[in-house]
């Protein structure tokens, strides 16, 4: 709905008849909000905070990770030492020597055929034992110079001392703070565009006033010079009027310059080319539309709506949750763990040169015992930061209360000035009328007429200033209350 309303305002701001855009205050606001870069930054920060909030939520859930490794070593792990390997490889030879030493004399007394048979058996036994010992040595070889290993681990936090809960609350608060910062940027943009808009309207009406005043003094200058030619007025009177004409021309030139610069600023805020001619809706009105407001002092509204106070409250809340995160450093932490691990070579069926693995589950408990007061000092520092944030919040509330009082008084004062300016307009108009009549009758000097013209010019200018002051004071009050929308 807001998007449709913005498009409607922008489409209604084009007048093809004159070839110039006619912009209302609402259309200028919509264009400024779309063009403002800081609002874009605030929106991106809001997206960042939202993604961080979603990230914090994942800390409650189990996390799965996979690990894979490969390692090549210059030496392999050996379960048997060199002596054991030699003994096993020469097991038959050692057996034959021992048998020869113990049973050799007895065998020598036997028949030759029996000796030959026993020798043949011993020879075969020596070979078989040597081969068996070699096979044992080979079986104990690990061949671990090339090791492959992998594991999938699932970790589920059970109790982290409250740190996960605190971190999630911090993420929520950061999201709120990003929204409050965006609202603050929005208010600042609207305040800036309102100031620029009414500045252009004010200078446009002052330009019309300066043109009217210049036309008035030029006509009077013509009348005075005619009277000088007729000998009714003096040359001194003519010179005085000429000075007023020059002053009026200078005033008009200054107003024109100021108006051009003000329009450039308004175009820049709206995202338009600086030199693009635009017409404001309130420029085309004879008088600046003013709705008189009698505001009541409402500090509670400011406390409830000002984004600055909300951001300071967010800071207080963040420091409190930071303290909880730090306190978790002194509390036990419990997590469930499980997974599946594989390796090559593996030792599940001797040493095998192939992949094999196993499932595993467990509980991880971490209990802090002694850290030399590190966590305690950090908690104290965090509590100090909370106290500072609370003091800054209280100070901001006091200043905003004062600001609301000042802006309420300023609105009342602007209304009074406008009423006085309107009264002065009537007096200045009557004064100028009677001065012109007296001058035409010849009973009033040109100096008195010029004074009446100057007073009329001043009264008209004060009326324009008073009308703009009423508008801007209302904007200031809305900003102070946090209701500028």
Structural account:
By secondary structure, the chain is an alpha+beta fold. It has helices at 2-11, 25-35, 37-57, 82-89, 91-108, 112-139, 163-230, 235-270, 299-305, 307-327, 374-441, 446-481, and strands spanning 14-15, 20-23, 63-72, 146-159, 278-280, 333-344, 356-366. The protein has a 4-stranded antiparallel sheet with strand order 3-4-6-7, with no helix packed on it. A 3-stranded mixed sheet has the order 1-2-5. A hairpin with a 4-residue loop joins β1 (14-15) and β2 (20-23). α11 runs antiparallel to α12 (446-481). It is rod-shaped. Mean pLDDT is 87; it is low at 1-18.
Features:
rod-shaped; single chain; 485 residues; alpha+beta; four-stranded antiparallel β-sheet; three-stranded mixed β-sheet
What is the typical, i.e. mean, pLDDT? 87
Overall shape: rod-shaped
Largest sheet: 4 strands, antiparallel
| Count of helix runs | 12
Regions with little confidence, pLDDT below 50 for 5+ residues: 1-18
Radius of gyration: 48 Å
Order of helices and strands: HEEHHEHHHEHHEHHEEHH
Residues in helices, as a percent range: 55-70%
Number of separate strands = 7
Q: Write out the strand line-up for the largest beta sheet, numbering strands in chain order.
A: 3-4-6-7
- What is the first-to-last residue Cα distance? 15 Å
Percentage of β-strand residues: 5-15%
- Would you tell me the structural class of the helices and strands? alpha+beta
């Amino acid at each position: 709905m807001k998007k449709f309303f913005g498009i409607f305002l922008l489409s209604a701001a084009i007048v093809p008849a004159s070839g110039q855009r006619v912009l209302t205050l609402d259309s200028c606001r919509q264009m400024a909000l779309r063009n403002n870069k800081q609002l874009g930054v605030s929106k991106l920060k809001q997206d960042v905070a939202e993604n961080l909030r979603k990230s914090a939520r994942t800390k409650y859930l189990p996390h799965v990770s996979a690990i894979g490794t490969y390692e090549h070593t210059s030496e392999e792990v050996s379960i048997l030492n060199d002596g054991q390997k030699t003994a096993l490889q020469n097991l038959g030879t050692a057996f034959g020597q021992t048998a020869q030493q113990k049973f050799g004399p007895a065998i020598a007394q036997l028949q030759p055929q029996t000796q030959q048979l026993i020798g043949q058996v011993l020879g075969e036994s020596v070979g078989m034992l040597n081969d068996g010992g070699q096979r044992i040595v080979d079986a104990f070889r690990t061949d671990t110079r090339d090791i492959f290993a992998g594991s999938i681990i699932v970790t589920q936090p059970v109790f982290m001392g409250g740190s996960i809960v605190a971190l999630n609350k911090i993420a929520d608060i950061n999201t709120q703070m990003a929204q409050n910062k965006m609202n603050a940027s929005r208010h600042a943009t609207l305040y800036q565009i309102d100031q620029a808009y009414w500045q252009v309207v004010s200078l446009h009406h002052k330009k019309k006033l300066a043109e009217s005043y210049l036309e008035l003094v030029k006509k009077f200058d013509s009348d005075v010079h005619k009277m000088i030619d007729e000998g009714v007025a003096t040359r001194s009177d003519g010179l005085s009027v000429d000075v007023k004409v020059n002053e009026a021309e200078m005033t008009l030139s200054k107003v024109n310059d100021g108006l051009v610069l003000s329009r450039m600023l308004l175009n820049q805020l709206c995202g338009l080319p600086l030199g693009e001619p635009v017409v404001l809706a309130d420029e085309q009105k004879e008088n600046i539309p003013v709705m008189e407001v009698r505001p009541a002092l409402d500090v509670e509204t400011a406390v409830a709506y000002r984004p600055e106070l909300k951001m300071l409250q967010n800071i207080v809340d963040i420091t409190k949750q930071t303290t909880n995160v730090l306190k978790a450093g002194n509390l036990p932490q419990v997590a469930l763990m499980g997974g599946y691990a594989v390796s090559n070579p593996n030792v599940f069926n001797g040493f095998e040169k192939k992949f094999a693995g196993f499932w595993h589950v467990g509980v991880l408990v971490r209990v802090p015992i002694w850290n030399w007061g590190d966590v305690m000092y950090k908690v104290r520092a965090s509590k100090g930061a909370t106290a500072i944030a609370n003091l800054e919040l209280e100070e901001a509330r006091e200043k905003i209360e004062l600001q609301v009082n000042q802006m309420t008084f300023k609105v009342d004062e602007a209304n009074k000035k406008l009423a006085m300016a309107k009264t002065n307009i009537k007096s200045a108009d009557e004064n100028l009328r009677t001065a012109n009549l007296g001058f035409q009758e010849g009973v009033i000097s040109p100096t008195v007429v010029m004074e009446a013209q100057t007073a009329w010019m001043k009264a008209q200018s004060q009326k324009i200033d008073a009308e703009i002051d009423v508008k801007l004071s209302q904007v200031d009050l809305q900003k102070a209350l946090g209701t500028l929308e």
